[in-house]
Amino acid sequence: MKGPFRFLPFLLFLSVLSSCLARQPALGPGAAASPSDLTPLMAAAQAGDANQVAALLAGGAKVDAANAEGSTALVFAAQAGSLPAVKLLLAAGAPGAGAAAYKALMLAAAYGHRDVESYLLAQGFPAAGPMTAAIVALAQRQGYLEASSMLAQAVAGSAGGPTAAAPDLSSVSSDADEPAYHEPADEDSFAVIVGVEEYARGLPPATFARRDALAVQRHLEALGVPPDHIRMLLGQDATQAQLAAYLERWLPRNADAKSTVFFYFSGHGAADPAGKTAYLVPFDGDPEFLDKTGFPLSRLYRDLQKLGAARALAVLDSCFSGAGERSVAAAGTRPLVTEVDWGGPVAGGSVAALTAASGTQTAGVLADQGHGAFTYYLLKGLNGAAQDAQGNVTLSDLYAYLKGQVEKAAALDNRAQTPQLLPEPPGALGGWALRTKGGS
Q1: What are the Cα distances from residue 244, in Å, to 59, 233, 304, 345?
Q2: pLDDT tens profile 322-353
């Protein structure tokens, strides 16, 4: 079912369950409540306008005000899928318990806003309630598999019941998840973060890719990227078309010659055995038809270079060998390629890339930390392990640290994994201080 008709089962479902919970805010694409029923803060939250939400809160708007249906601004922000607005409202004292909090979580799950859902669950929002089982089933029918699984696992965990068929990662935590520093906000910085753990075409999961992306989001915010300057593409949102849209439309509309740009990808990579071209594999990617469904690394680097930004960094926790935790190959093909055309950044330019492994190696994970090995040591380095004598973390120092640590971890796993910093040598970009002493 396509277009607006896709939401008809949702609307019918909500009308049946309205006796179990106060009526939901109007649902469906572009739906709006009656203007007279909304406070300005609710309207801004419904529009997903985090800047306006911040301005209204600063002006004394009541964060816990509810409309006639019992919906608060937080409910509307969750429905809109605006994680920056959700964070602002919670920081201003929006309740994390009660009927409105439960409604916010249910709407985030039902609409497949997995970043908002994950954040609300991490804040202890109530997952168990009269609508939960039906929301889990509805999200699954709508194709929001990760949202459905996350909510089901949260309920099972709170009830002490058996875990779902998928691995229960809710108890996994890492000492690198939370930033140990805070840089001043930089309004000229932007980021696109992509995490693809499960794929549409039956490909094996890229374990911990979602956790990688969410942790990187927290660290980029700590590095000074404003939350509303970050775009997250998780799971089914990370299609080839969406990657192209944000790299080739959103970033060019926002970045300029003063900008700092970050691109992060955690998920599968692949290489065309014939042309030896390296590709990122989006949610809808097919290793059988990489030239039509993959996203070439050469295109990524070209897109970043065309921005004309002051500097840009691509960080890729993928490999392109056709084997291991973060790579796939077409059925019937030899899993390892002997050479990969990286199409990497050119020397002397403004774009650099940190990649998890060389073209013929596999990229592994650290199960006890719940991250790809490359991402884990990247975050550890930013947290201070890669600081130089002046207290800064430069790109070259970060690379030197994570290269050594990843190589050691891979050797314990009886394999080789050597991260790459491109171009080699990195030139002036090597001295880029990602984190400064003052940001500690």
Answers
A1: 38, 12, 12, 18
A2: 545 556 555 443 333 445 455 567 667 899 99
